[in-house]
Write a structure and sequence with these properties.
With 77 residues, this protein is α+β, with helices and mostly antiparallel strands. It contains four helices and two strands. A two-stranded parallel ribbon has the order 1-2. The chain is globular, with a radius of gyration of 14 Å.
Length: 77
């Protein structure tokens, strides 16, 4: 499995990709960060969940529906 740091390095974006650590609820922090930095694309990993949990919501689902930027979800095949 490849980590984000390796992927960023392999595609040559290491110097262009900002990294910050924030504290809070991931979905709220990601949405706020994207809006404050005028992001035009948010890329998220997604994992499979039992159907009942999908109905309750997830970080990826919330961001997909509430983000002002385009959202690309990458999940398992």
């Amino acid at each position: 499995m490849i980590c984000v740091e390796q992927l960023v390095e392999e595609v040559g974006l290491s110097e262009l990709t900002p990294r910050e650590i924030v504290d809070g609820y991931p979905k709220h922090e990601i949405l706020e960060y994207a809006q404050q930095h005028q992001m035009d694309l948010i890329i998220l990993g997604r994992h499979r969940r039992p159907r009942i949990l999908e109905l309750l919501g997830s970080t990826a689902n919330t961001i997909l529906h509430k983000a002002q930027a385009d959202v690309l979800l990458i999940g398992h095949a």
